[in-house]
Amino acid sequence: MGYDYIKAEREGAVGVIALNRPEVLNALNLQLIDELVTELERMDRDDSIRAIVLTGNERAFAAGADIGEMADEAAISMLLKDQFAVWDRIAGISKPILAAVSGFALGGGCELMMNCDIIIASETTKIGQPEIKLGVMPGAGGTQRLTKAVGKVKAMEMLLTGEPISADEALRYGLVNKVVPVEMYFHETMKLARKIAEQPPIAARLIKKSVLKAIDNPLSEGLDYERNCFYLLFASEDQKEGMRAFIEKRRPKFSGR
């Protein structure tokens, strides 16, 4: 499938999607998001892909939304367009998504990054939600996911000043998993993605869903969901293979069934 604003390929069991509007620091216009979600859903349906890496380039993961698309809009036209509805489909991707982030991850770029499950950042990364400087606020989950990630007081500071934080500060607040030199950020993300892709894919999907349940639901509901997923995995061939391999002291060969 041909795309204008993303590049998609597969490296073994890892699908790789690169945002591709370098002339505008990968600003997120409507077409780019539509192409991205289409490809994420395609990879999610492809059983040969077990993990997905989302990246930009060294200068920018994504520097924000394409302001030119919105500058002259009215409230009703924005409501009817409902441009953020397509973002909700990202949350429906069942496979692990890893973000390889460098340079600017601002506004919509920060929101897109926070939709990923694991984030590896280069030491040059700048992360923020500067929408207030444009007279607006985040609309694709920035106030919600950022608060859950870094806590109320830090989220308030970032959102109300619009000032970005460094990769090291993001690491201290738990917003990213790891910070590496810029020449290593994609390599390190792919290394981790390949390791995840070696795991049983059904278990990986259910683990992802269970963790997301922990974010949005009371502990009792999350525990009940986790327990049912645990029992369900005993219907899989991978559970039999994994436990048999452990007993036989050999490396398991997971089939995804």
Descriptive tags:
alpha/beta, 2-enoyl-CoA Hydratase, Chain A, domain 1, Lyase 2-enoyl-coa Hydratase, Chain  A, domain 2, 2 domains, 6-stranded mixed beta sheet, 11 helices, 16% strand, globular
How would you describe what is shown here?
The chain has 257 residues and is of the alpha/beta class. The chain has 2 domains: 6-197, 2-enoyl-CoA Hydratase, Chain A, domain 1 (Alpha-Beta Complex), CATH 3.90.226; 201-248, Lyase 2-enoyl-coa Hydratase, Chain  A, domain 2 (Orthogonal Bundle), CATH 1.10.12.10. Helix content is 44%, strand content 16%. It has 11 helices and 10 strands. The protein has helices at 30-45, 75-81, 85-88, 108-114, 142-150, 152-161, 167-172, 185-197, 201-216, 219-232, 237-248; strands at residues 6-11, 14-19, 51-55, 60-62, 97-101, 104-106, 118-122, 126-128, 165-166, 178-180. The strands form 2 sheets. Strands 1-2-3-5-7-10 form a 6-stranded mixed sheet, sandwiched between helices. Strands 4-6-8-9 form a 4-stranded mixed sheet. Strand 1 and strand 2 form a beta hairpin. It is globular and about 65 Å long. The two termini are 28 Å apart.
Number of helical stretches of at least 4 residues: 11
Radius of gyration: 19 Å
Q: Helices and strands: which structural class?
A: alpha/beta
How many runs of DSSP E, i.e. beta strands? 10
CATH superfamily of the largest domain: 2-enoyl-CoA Hydratase, Chain A, domain 1
Q: What integer is the average pLDDT?
A: 94
Strand content: 15-25%
Main sheet properties:
6 strands, mixed
Arrangement of strands in the largest sheet:
1-2-3-5-7-10
Share of helix, binned: 40-55%
Low-confidence stretches: none
Our measurement of the CA-to-CA distance between the termini, rounded to an integer number of angstroms, reads 28 Å
The backbone outline, from C-alpha atoms, is globular
Number of domains: 2
CATH second-level architecture of the largest domain: Alpha-Beta Complex
**CATH topology term of the largest domain:** 2-enoyl-CoA Hydratase, Chain A, domain 1
H/E order of the elements?
EEHEEHHEEHEEHHEHEHHHH
